[in-house]
Amino acid sequence: MHITQLNRECLLHLFSFLDKNSRKNLAKTCRKLLEVFQDPLLWSRLNFHSPVELEKNNFLLGPALKHLSICWYSERVKVCNIEDWMKNSFQKDFCKRHENTVSDFLLDVCNRCPNLLSLTLSGCGHITDNCILQLLKNCPNLKSLKLENCVRITDHTLEAVTLHGASLQTLHVDFCRNITQAGLERVREKCPSVMLRAERSANMMPDSKPEKKLMLEKASRKLVQL
């Protein structure tokens, strides 16, 4: 039996075991397999492991997308996690070329994927509060938001959670050094049902000078009390 003789349900099941590139290559062989590739049911979950993957035409975005993960694991692409002064010329060039890649992609998700249930971002150093705000507004069913080492995220994202995260059940902001303890307490107060985790975040030295000043003042008060 030839693969094209299988019914659509079987073909969808077969495609589900393939990665994005393999699905795309198989879809190029005939019209029937291309139609299966374009079936929204095939694209309820997307995982990306490098900025380059976001620019490939090997996936579909649509209302069927429920789970999205964008995580940089490779040492060659994990350049947004380190300070500018620590980057070599290759890392600086790479980071500059992909500065808006993730944020532009997420804005596309806002417009096309209103039924998103979970979003995981790790090492996406250029993601801003406004990007997360737009996601929360446009994806009202979002239940899980996990941010790790997204260094530009601040208390504005936490405030957006309290205002627009009505469906949110899980919030992780690990290694997001520019959020504060006050912001975390506000989330706990206004959204007590949300499972909040913030490992190595508010206790790290933030970038903004006002927050550094606040931390120094608190430390001084503790010394006086001692």
Automatic annotation (TrEMBL):
- Where's the F-box domain? 1-46
| Leader sequence segment | none
Keywords carried by this UniProt record: Ubl conjugation pathway
Pfam families from the UniProt entry: F-box-like
Single GO cellular component annotation?
Answer: cytoplasm
Q: Can you say what this protein is called? A: FXL22 protein
Organism equals Polioptila caerulea (Blue-grey gnatcatcher)
Q: Which SMART domains does UniProt cross-reference here?
A: LRR_CC
